[in-house]
Amino acid sequence: MNQPQVRKGGILVAIASAVIYSGVSVLAKFAYRYNLSPLELLKERYLLASIILVVVIGLSNWHLLFPRNWHEAGVLLGFSAVFVTGPTLLYFTALRLLPVSTAMFLFHCYPAFAGLFAWIFLHERVTRAYLASVGVIAVGLLLLLGASFRSVSGIGVLTMLACTVAYALYAVLSQRVIRGVDPRTLGLYNQVAPAIVLCLLTIGQPVFYPVVFSSRTAMLAFAGIGLSAAGGMFLFVQGIAMIGAQRAVIIDSLEPVLSAFYALVLLGEHMKPVALAGGLLIVTGVVVGNLPTPKLNVPSTLPSTTGQ
Fold first, then answer.
1. Among positive and negative, which fits the CA dihedral 195, 18, 16, 20?
2. Domain residues for 193?
3. Number of folded domains that form the chain
4. For the segment 136-181, what is each residue's pLDDT rounded down to a tens digit?
């Protein structure tokens, strides 16, 4: 396959990842109707995604199921247990309190914090593209929250902002702590480690709650959460391999827009025009911060393979 075909295929794979992965938040919001706590719902999400990914990766290349040595296994499990479980628990808590569209657009402010942490911890220089990105994201954030100030939960907004900071820290530190690991292996352990942690936190409770199997609708919703999380992550890392990180993250910025559309169709959530404009500005800021530059060693605000 020649280079243009690989690039075209990679773009399609990255788009498919965004289309699939953007459904996780909408399905999770729907699943809250079954009266699970954020901790319980998140456990089901990671358990289902882990099972699916073990099967998919095992069938495609079973060597990727295992780290290269015991030290790497410990680092992957320990780092993911803390820096994936924490942000996603904050995310699912905020998602319970906020409309899906507001939650997703707020979450995608994290590149602004990631660039700051990269400057502090990795001593990467601050570029004009990053400053422009932060400015656009800040304006979008003001519009998004200003239009919805009286109608959204303040606790939910603060929880989601804490999530963005924690996730940005993960994205930056992972560049130093986890090097040379195949993205598919990293993505797998980003699911497995939180699943183990959440099972330990809910020890004595069923691994899969009876409500998961209480009706056909419930089974479809929870299965959809697992399939969306696992499928979206797997396709995303494949897209990175085919078209590179910067192009993949630009396409990944479609996620909040798609989630807002899914929430409108499936949950009946409506955004005010000003709030939608703010959300689109946030996405624009992410794209600006990840546009290719002619200079080398420019930090990227690429998310790691954790997501929601």
1. positive
2. 18-290
3. 1
4. 988 988 888 776 656 788 899 999 999 999 988 988 888 777 778 8
